[in-house]
Amino acid sequence: RYFDEIRLFEIGRVFRLEGKKIREKKMISGVLGAKMERVRKRVEKSLFSEGKGIIDLLLEKMGVADVWYDDFLAETNEMRMFQPAKRALVKTENKTLGWLGEINKTSLSVLGIGESVFAFELDFELLNELVEREVAYRAPSKYPAIVRDLSLLVQPQTKIDQVLDIIENIGGALIIDTELFDVYEKGGQKGLAFRIIYQSNERTLTDVEVNASQQKIIKAMEERGWEVRR
C-alpha cells in the first residue's frame, strides 16, 4: 500500500513430508513485488525477467556455474501458484537447486494481493556445497565475444532444455554461454528469449560465421514448427 515495490528475502529451515518421513532443510527464499502501474511503465522488462536477473546475479557472485532453467516436470503446489509461462526450476548439473516464478492472479487473490509478485526458493545447503567446491581457474579469452539475442514462440508443452539442446548442439564450440532471459505467454503459446554468446580462445570470430551459425539454429527451430521472432 505504501510502497511502489518491495524486495524481501529470508534464510530459514523448512519441514517437508517426503514419503513417510519429515525432512528438514535450510532454504533461502524471497519475493519481489511491484504495483501494476510500475510494471506497465517498464514494458521492456517483465517482473519475471527482473526477478530471474537477480537470481542470476546472486549465483554469479557466489561462483555457482553451469546453472540452467527448466520447466516444472510435475504438478506440485509450487507449480500451481505460478503463471504457466513464467515459472522455472533452477538446475545445476543434474540437481535441482530451487524454483522461481511469477505468481498467478488466482493465488494472489486468495492472499488478498492485487499487485504482481515474483517469488523464489533455493536450497541453501546445496548452494553452500556448490560454493565450497574447488573452482578450477580458466583464463578468459583475449578475443572479443559476439552476442546475439533469439526470441521464439513454442508450444506450451515444449521444454526449455529442448530449445537449449538445439542451440548448443548446432552452435558447438563457438558458443560459450546461452542465457534464458525472459519467458512470456502470447496467443496461447510460450515465448522464450535467449542471449547467445559466441567467443573463441584462438581467434576473433567474424560476423559472417556467427550469423551463419545463428541461421542454422533458426532453421532447425523453424523445422520443428517453432516461430522465431524477427
From TrEMBL:
SMART domains: FDX-ACB (SM00896). It comes from the Bacteria. Residues 141-229 form the FDX-ACB domain. It holds the Pfam family tRNA_synthFbeta. This is FDX-ACB domain-containing protein. It comes from Candidatus Portnoybacteria bacterium CG09_land_8_20_14_0_10_44_13.
